[in-house]
Automatic annotation (TrEMBL):
Residue ranges of domain Phospholipid/glycerol acyltransferase in the record: 182-292
Region (Disordered): 31-59
Gene Ontology MF terms in the entry: lysophosphatidylethanolamine acyltransferase activity; O-acyltransferase activity
Residues spanning the membrane: 100-128, 148-169
Localization terms from the record: Membrane
Pfam families for the chain: Acyltransferase
Protein name in the entry: Phospholipid/glycerol acyltransferase domain-containing protein
């Protein structure tokens, strides 16, 4: 060994040293959120590996052959799964001696608070009925004298907050004048924020159509000249955007309030934004709501409404902070897209909250509820960051739930993974080389099992291929014209498309035979 000098490294590099991992982080504001290429930067193509997996009854040979190459597939890209659960309430259970003692001590207080809540709700309901009585022209702004009657309901709302333990609410900043910011957006953590904003701003809100049927509450939000929207109906969403634009443009209407995340979260992340508040192109004031706590998480996540209300009633005091941020205006002298406007606003909110932004959406909540309903041990494993999936593959949340229904029939294990033989059984495929190639194509991590995210990405990827529909039509035309109930291997590649997307028996009922 040569004597070392000052320029020689103390530890010479070894040929077997692993390569360095280099992460490139891009400025999220410099890319278009709808761009598939930017979304794919966090995805990895796993279909260029060779490996063997013993999967119990079957041995899967993960070859480099792509069974969908003839349709134009260049391999499957599956984005890494997020470990964040935006709906997890960390204090769903009452734990610890202090919490149980507090519960016992506060039970009499909770009874008084419940009575106060009921009385205030009744007073607010009756005042709202008086304010709405005889008012026929609901498309116009509420007359001033009716709005003055609604002050009774607004004060009742403040007493309702008091009954829930919000004796004082810390505020930072002030609401901007309506002519400076006709639209207000806020993060959404609990059912408390709408009550607070009703008292503080008396805005026009955008809400789901189902809220209209809630006893007492439905009547009160109608007085706010609510803009109803069905999130699954494109015409309804278009109508809601037009109404937002109409009411934001007129000083006769109050501010328009939206929760662009579309549902409540635990407040520790910021989910992807819906674009309804940003399409009209008016200045927007972001508002942050925080619930500082030690023992009781006040977020309305994976906890029932009744249990959350009971826990609030049995606290000495619940803390709430509201911060009005500076107004975010559309960029001057250039036409800014709603996507970029939403990204700038969400960045302001995330920075103020000091939280990360994810691509979760209401669709992930639907998947989570379906997994909980089917009693999966780890329901959060079935969330896929639906906003990213919709951007990449243009499939809806309802379609993703349909895929989950099919996946759950495959008997996933406690970790949410499906084995080869269960995959074949549900999709009615026979064990053969071609079936192995299909399974290996979806098994992006080459682990011998597939997750729901891999199944969804694989199915959506195949459906998006340019020749997918044409191949299906040809395959089933051949199936019907031949009069056979089986398809040979050289014909079966067309039907393997249906095998992967879980729609094998939609048009006819063939079985796959490998010869």
């Amino acid at each position: 060994m040569a004597d070392p000098d000052l320029s020689s490294p103390l530890l010479p590099s070894q040929p077997s040293d692993p390569p360095h991992l280099i992460l490139t982080i891009h400025d999220s504001l410099s890319h278009n959120n709808n761009s598939s290429s930017s979304n794919r930067e966090s995805c990895v193509n796993h279909n260029h590996q060779n490996s063997h997996h013993n999967n119990g009854n079957s041995i899967i040979n993960s070859s480099t052959k792509n069974p969908y190459e003839f349709l134009g597939s260049k391999g499957l890209e599956v984005c890494g799964s997020s470990t964040v659960d935006p709906f997890l309430n960390k204090t769903g259970r009452i734990e610890g001696l202090y919490e149980w003692l507090k519960l016992v001590v506060c039970l009499p207080v909770a009874a008084v608070r419940l009575v106060l809540f009921g009385v205030c709700l009744l007073i607010g309901f009756l005042a709202t009925k008086v304010a709405l009585y005889g008012w026929k022209d609901r498309q116009s702004a509420m007359p001033v004298w009716r709005s003055r009657i609604m002050w009774i309901t607004r004060i009742s709302a403040r007493f309702i907050l008091f009954s829930f333990g919000y004796h004082w609410i810390r505020r930072k900043g002030k609401p901007a004048p309506r002519d400076s910011a006709p639209i207000v957006v806020s993060n959404h953590v609990s059912y408390i924020e709408p009550i607070f904003y009703f008292y503080e701003l008396f805005p026009t809100i955008v809400a789901a159509e189902s809220h209209d049927s809630i006893p007492f509450v439905g009547t009160i939000i109608r007085a706010m000249q609510v803009i109803y929207v069905n999130r699954f109906s494109p015409p309804s969403r278009k109508h809601a955007v037009n109404e937002i634009k109409r009411k934001a443009s007129s000083d006769r209407f109050p501010r328009v309030l939206l929760f662009p995340e579309g549902t409540t979260t635990n407040g520790r992340i910021l989910m992807s934004f819906q674009l309804g508040a940003f399409i009209p192109g008016y200045p927007i004031q972001p508002v942050i709501v925080r619930y500082p706590h030690v023992h009781f998480d006040q977020s309305w996540g994976n906890i029932s409404l009744a249990k959350l209300m009971f826990r609030m009633f049995t606290q000495f005091h619940n803390f709430m902070e509201v911060e009005y941020l500076p107004v975010v205006s559309p960029l001057p002298n250039q036409k800014e897209t709603a996507v970029h406007f939403a990204k700038r606003t969400s960045h302001a909110l995330a920075t103020g909250l000091n939280v990360i932004q994810t691509s979760h959406s209401y669709g992930d909540l639907m998947l989570l509820m379906k997994a909980i309903e089917s009693k999966q041990e780890k329901p959060s494993n079935y969330m896929v960051e639906m906003a990213k999936v919709q951007s990449l593959f243009h499939i809806s949340s309802l379609e993703a739930v349909d895929f989950l229904d099919k996946f759950l029939l495959m008997n996933p294990n406690p970790s949410g993974c499906v084995k080869f033989h269960d995959f074949l059984k549900v999709l009615r495929l026979k064990a053969c080389t071609l079936s192995e190639e299909i399974f290996s194509f979806i098994d992006a991590e080459k682990s011998g099992t597939i997750t729901f995210k891999q199944f969804l990405f694989g199915s959506a990827h195949v459906m998006k291929l340019p020749l997918f529909r044409q191949a299906c039509e040809l395959a089933f035309a051949e199936c019907k014209s031949g009069g056979n109930d089986y398809i040979l291997e050289h014909e079966s590649q067309f039907l393997n498309v249906f095998g992967s997307v879980g729609k094998f028996d939609q048009t006819c009922n063939p079985r796959l035979e490998c010869r």
